[in-house]
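Tutorial, part two.
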Amino acid sequence: MNVLWIFAHPEGRSLNAALRDEGLRALEESGHSYRVSDLYAMKWNPVVGHDDFDREPGERLLVASASQEAYETGRLSADIRAEQEKLAWADAIVLQFPMWWYGMPAILKGWFDRVLVKGLGYGIAAEDGTVLRYGDGKLTGKRGMVVTTIGARESSIGPRGVHGGLDDLLFPLHHGTFWYTGIAPLPPYAVLSADRLDDAGFAAAADGLRDRLRTLETAEPIPFRYQNRGDYDENLVLRGDLATGRTDLAVHLRG
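Running the prediction step on this input gives:
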């Protein structure tokens, strides 16, 4: 497989960097090819602006239409086009970051904001006008896996833990970014109590990551429901006969 590893941590001597290096070695051992986007090292600009789309600063910027026009005419900025080329090359995306304030670092959010422009990540329709999202789209066929570190202790991450369950914390990324664009999200790999990890804990975390990467090509994705295969009505609301009486996020899982 071709794997794009997107890394978002500012410190090259961090736990995250050490885990990344272990992960890349595991990919090599399994015969995969990889490319790395180390966003902090690249000094990636996370802020959408006129220069992304070859627009004059004084011109009113309608981001969706401007991004689609620039994408379709080849006028996106060079840094965006470089990341889109990596994305096109990849069969799988590994997204690695420390969880800060219940989400990804701003620099990584900005990667999605700038790279997944209209016409690539969203705003895509079939010939009959059907909007292609949530399981369908230009990125369908690719796999995505989150690798994250969380300072919170394991007991506090769960359905009754004060921080909530890991699946709920990552729902916006798994469902609203990966699945929305057609990327099949794999179960995440999370290292908890990351700030208190000792040598033995690191060894166990590294072994666990290597094990997960060995199944990158074969692991079953999170079984989210497709938007366009009958589970949702014309208003994009889950049919009443499915997951009856429930309102938790897991209603969007098949089975």
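Residues 197 and 203 are 10 Å apart (CA to CA). In part three we will examine how such features are distributed along the chain.
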